[in-house]
Structure formats: C-alpha cells, structure tokens
Amino acid sequence: MPLSTELPTGQLQLSRAADRSDKPHLPVRGDLAHIGLAGKYFVPHYAVPMAHGVKAETVLRAAGKQDAAELRALAAGEVFDVLDMAGGWAWGQARSDLLVGYVEMSQLEASA
Prior knowledge:
By secondary structure, the chain is mostly beta strands. The protein is built from no helices and nine strands.
C-alpha cells in the first residue's frame, strides 16, 4: 500500500524505536524519507514523491552507481516515484511493488 503524500499537521513526535523490518520497501535513509513517514522516522528532510516513467527497460540498483547490486528490472512505462536526485541517479520507490532503490536519471521522464 503506497504511503500518503498528505503533509502532516500538528506536532510530530516519536514514541518508540523505528521498525525497519521491511527495509527493501521502506523509503527512508539517514538523510531523507518519504513524507508519509514523517512522525514515524526522524530524518533531517522529508520528500513528496515525484512520479516518473521509465523510458526503456532498465535496472533498479541498491546504490547510485553502475556496479551496485541489481535489485530487479524495471519495465518501460513503469512508474518510479523519485524522492531524491543527485549525481545522475534518482533514489525512490517503484510504484508496482514499492521496492526502494536507485535508477539512472537518463532512464526516467517526469510524468504529468
């Protein structure tokens, strides 16, 4: 189930240690997390996902570099929700199975 992109209201607080049992599908890293995780994970920044389409079949990787482990193939036309862009790579989440990873920016195009 996709996370909500609604901005949280009121004061946020953490009440217990974060559960990271579903890490491959959890869009959170040390510096950034999906806006839907605000109040559940404490990070310096939260991002609203930006939908992008995969231009041609490509690979979702564990890190933003060519030799990083391949997580799975992404099909042309698949939607990838981008949370961060840096160094020619996009970090985010595949919408079809919510798997989190990195895709080369050149393989993505912004969706309407």
